[in-house]
Amino acid sequence: MAFEIKRLNVSPEDLEQLGTKEKFWFNFKGGNVRWLFKYSRENTGEHWSEKVAEELCKELGIPHVKYEMAQMNERYGIVSPNVIPEQCRMIMGNEVLHKDSPSTYPEPVKDTQQFVRIKEHTVQRVLGCFDLSEISPPKGWDSIEGLNAGDVFCGYLMLDALISNQDRHHENWAIVINTETQEKYLCETYDHAASLGRELLDKEREDRLTSKDKNRQVGKFVQKARSELFKLKTDKKPQLTNDAFFLSVEKRENAKVFWLERLRALTDEKIDAIFNKIPTEVISDVAREFSLKMVLENKKRLLEDDRV
After folding, report:
1. Cβ–Cβ contacts within 10 Å for residue 59, how many?
2. Which residues, in sequence order, are CB contacts of 289 under 8 Å at separation 6+?
3. Of 27, 97, 168, 175, which has the fewest Cβ atoms less than 10 A away?
4. How far apart are CA 156 and CA 162, in angstroms?
5. Under DSSP, is residue 268 helix (H, G, I), strand (E, B) or coil?
6. Rounded Cα gap, residues 211 and 287, in angstroms
7. What is the pTM of this model?
8. Distance (Å, rounded) from C-alpha 45 to C-alpha 49?
9. pLDDT at 306
10. What is the pLDDT along the chain (308 residues), one digit of tens a residue?
């Protein structure tokens, strides 16, 4: 059965422009949960790439925000429920890191519409912040029993490597704080649309799928995916997604074994089944084939890496 595409006809409570995406909060008729709708950008597959990422999270047991594909005003997008409890608030990674290290991590820029790359956003700084600030793992996820918040974040980075997600910047992870008890815990992973080659045109996909030039093929294409996390603040470029994951588990053997075992259990047939459930109205055959091959190539690369 294909994934549902929700057809929306709602009155936005609050239409806002953040970055380059239009999004707003709304309630389904008769429901008391607030949902966020985000339009996909023109000529991208941001709606189906986000849905595929969510389904892979389900298979891997990675705590994640729920996503459904949707359509409003003849435009596609994605909807997700509010995951922040009433007595809690969400704190983005840049605010977390600045508060933890005010003298060395830049203060967040308020009300900006443009993402600014921060070289101080390093793998070890993020993991160290989780450990030193007594941040708990996400709430209500039995699938991560025995892991701390840093170990769970390593799973987020493995997901990034699997789907070639290049958008794990310091506002694409967060913690949640209970304003009554001051308890802090890692938020579920969210916002994975910048993955799976969702911005490519089918002409390029077809060329890469059929090219005899190894430098044009999918296997080479996925090797170029970069995280928004650095190894050192002096580095010119952020880490490649595979490198970011393996750096994160370098001294976390339990997390490395845990997540790679989950990945081994994710069969190629299960991955193929996920892609086959994307409705044909939102994805072309060549885009489906290309993005599926990306995941299979990335899975192979992760499991055959010398650092395993």
Report:
1. 16
2. 205, 209
3. 27
4. 10
5. helix
6. 16
7. 0.94
8. 6
9. 97
10. 999 999 998 765 544 444 445 888 888 888 889 999 999 998 899 999 999 999 999 999 999 999 999 998 889 999 999 999 999 999 999 999 998 888 889 988 765 555 678 999 999 999 999 988 889 999 999 999 999 999 999 999 999 999 999 999 999 999 999 999 999 999 999 999 999 999 999 999 999 999 999 999 999 999 999 999 999 999 999 999 999 999 999 999 999 999 999 999 999 999 999 999 999 999 999 999 999 999 999 999 999 999 99
101's CB contacts (< 8 A; 6+ apart) are: 125, 129
Task: Report CA torsion sign: 115, 119, 122, 126.
Answer: negative
What pLDDT does residue 16 have?
47
Residue type, 51: K
Rounded to an integer, what distance in angstroms lies between the CA atom of residue 195 and that of residue 161? 10
Closest CA to 21 of 134, 153, 114, 119: 114
Q: Are 190 and 80 in contact (CB under 8 A)?
A: yes
Spell out where the chain has E strands: 5-7, 14-18, 21-27, 34-39, 68-72, 75-81, 88-92, 174-178, 184-186
Sign of the alpha-carbon dihedral angle for 66, 45, 72, 110: positive
**What domains lie within the chain, and their CATH numbers?**
5-81 (3.30.200.120), 84-308 (1.10.1070.20)
DSSP annotation of 221 reads H
Q: How many CA atoms lie within 13 A of 136 on its CB side?
A: 12
299 and 263 in contact (C-beta within 8 Å)?
yes
Question: Dmax over Cα atoms in the chain, in whole Å?
Answer: 60
Question: Which is nearest to 198 in space by CA: 306, 70, 46?
Answer: 46
